[in-house]
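Quick one:
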Amino acid sequence: MPRESPSRRLLPKGLYLITPDEVDSTRLLALVATVLPFASCLQYRNKRADAGLREQQAVALRDLCRGAGVPLIINDDAALAAKIGAEGVHLGEHDGDIVAARALLGDGAIVGVSCYDELVRAESAAQGGADYVAFGAFFPSPTKPNARRAAPALLQAAARLGLPQVAIGGITPDNARPLIAAGADLIAVISGVFDAADPVAAAQAYRACFTHPYLGSPAQADEAAQEPSP
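Output:
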């Protein structure tokens, strides 16, 4: 059985905010500061930044997150998470293993794992001590247009693992509720908030999805996930 997950306490249901690939640190911090109050956690991800800039931005975001009481999770880089004292790390399939990340960050850290469209990978992550599993893309995503596609039924199947589940990929306030009804505890978003005309209103709309239930059936949720996102 997987161990008891501290992320149940540290990551309440809601918006899992992921930073955009912004190299202007001042602009990045300003963007994040406006929407951070509506997030359950923030993942720092910047594929355009070099190592020095990533550390600089991660430190600044750590301080911002601490002031807001929001956990900071570093994408891909457990060493950076340990160096700056972030609350956790998110690991893709080529980003190292859970045991190594746990050794660097300690038992109290949050270690999340991308599981794409693979229940077997989620089962392995749970056995290895992951604190949450992430599935997707559920819809076409501008961030990763060629990402593997997952169906809401995967969330239902993974519920038996007893871990918080993150849904990602082309999710909007209009299509998020079926995923939440299927078992998503957090909705991960980049462009849906940061590219919105009004990022604060967008963040609030995502958060509201958790308080207004989806009234459709699981079959309708699966069908909806096959439709192009707005």
